[in-house]
Amino acid sequence: YGHSNQLRQARAMGDCLIVGVHTDEEIAKHKGPPVFTQEERYKMVQAIKWVDEIAPGAPYVTTLETLDKYNCDFCVHGDDITLTIDGKDTYEEVKTAGRYRECKRTQGVSTTDLVGRMLLMTKAHHSNIDEDLDYRKHTDNFGKGPKGHSPWTGVSQFLQTSQKIIQFASGKEPQPGDTIIYVAGAFDLFHIGHVDFLEKVHQLAERPYIIAGLHFDQEVNRYKGKNYPIMNIHERTLSVLACRYVSEVVIGAPYAVTADLLDHFKVTLVCHGMTEVVPDKDGSDPYEEPKRRGIFQLVDSGSDLTTDLIVQRIIKNRLEFEARNQKKEAKELAVLEAMKRLEEK
């Protein structure tokens, strides 16, 4: 949702947003191993509602030639720094030409921090649990080179505000003639498996209005165990709202899809993917009511990616990721030092 927020801000600066997505090879060369494959990332970015078009295989260093090729007036990046493998600012050329704009980086989230949560079996990131010391110690190591913290890669806490939710929400009410479809789950580490599922659900109706019910952290932890969810309820809310197929989100939806819920939202159809449905606390089927009404449908997303699999990818590459973050941090700190020296002069 940090990436989505950047795209939202960029889209507000113009009329058409084209997002350049790097290949796996380019990322591996300049940053370290990517978590998702380029195909997954292309599809993922395309599913974000502020994106008009993607430019696959975009070069790591943004040039005027690339901007002209896609007919762009300017490019936008967050107010953190991106550096090439040899420590140069990747936006130097477009900045000099005056075709560069900046947007605010989203506080309290980074790929670094999410990777840290996956590697540590702690629940400190859940919205209702006191911070645990192992997690604090780990986040200190994870985004920190030997010389201290870089403000760009370091870890800080995400604070949800009503304003943030408003910026992400579509604000559209269901209209007469819309098919109101309800889906529920954790939607943790919002990924391509979720996108494929929501896209399939979206295709079930002429005018779909999809409401996604998100379970609270404690509920997800009850049926998923370990340190799930990796992202807390506030973070999951924004991630799901950024998806172009979703019209509305229920924050902290009940695990059992009740008659009350179905009547309140005037739901026509309830969909679930091919993942296992864990019984409710009392052993009952959470989809009993929609099944009784004959409005329950299983939808095969055709994707086998799950949150578990992403966590396994991370664990497999653990050492490479830790090395990647420390190198990134060291490069950023060197730039900060240089900037400080320039100011002093």
UniProtKB/TrEMBL annotation:
<dbReference type="GO" id="GO:0006646">
    <property type="term" value="P:phosphatidylethanolamine biosynthetic process"/>
</dbReference>
<keyword id="KW-1208">Phospholipid metabolism</keyword>
<dbReference type="Pfam" id="PF01467">
    <property type="entry name" value="CTP_transf_like"/>
</dbReference>
<keyword id="KW-0808">Transferase</keyword>
<dbReference type="InterPro" id="IPR044608">
    <property type="entry name" value="Ect1/PCYT2"/>
</dbReference>
<comment type="similarity">
    <text>Belongs to the cytidylyltransferase family.</text>
</comment>
<dbReference type="GO" id="GO:0004306">
    <property type="term" value="F:ethanolamine-phosphate cytidylyltransferase activity"/>
</dbReference>
<keyword id="KW-0548">Nucleotidyltransferase</keyword>
<comment type="pathway">
    <text>Phospholipid metabolism; phosphatidylethanolamine biosynthesis; phosphatidylethanolamine from ethanolamine: step 2/3.</text>
</comment>
<keyword id="KW-0444">Lipid biosynthesis</keyword>
<comment type="pathway">
    <text>Lipid metabolism.</text>
</comment>
<dbReference type="InterPro" id="IPR004821">
    <property type="entry name" value="Cyt_trans-like"/>
</dbReference>
<feature type="domain" description="Cytidyltransferase-like">
    <location>
        <begin position="183"/>
        <end position="273"/>
    </location>
</feature>
<protein>
    <recommendedName>
        <fullName>ethanolamine-phosphate cytidylyltransferase</fullName>
        <ecNumber>2.7.7.14</ecNumber>
    </recommendedName>
</protein>
<feature type="domain" description="Cytidyltransferase-like">
    <location>
        <begin position="1"/>
        <end position="115"/>
    </location>
</feature>
<keyword id="KW-0594">Phospholipid biosynthesis</keyword>
<keyword id="KW-0443">Lipid metabolism</keyword>
<dbReference type="GO" id="GO:0005737">
    <property type="term" value="C:cytoplasm"/>
</dbReference>
<dbReference type="InterPro" id="IPR014729">
    <property type="entry name" value="Rossmann-like_a/b/a_fold"/>
</dbReference>
<feature type="coiled-coil region">
    <location>
        <begin position="316"/>
        <end position="345"/>
    </location>
</feature>
<dbReference type="InterPro" id="IPR041723">
    <property type="entry name" value="CCT"/>
</dbReference>
<keyword id="KW-0175">Coiled coil</keyword>
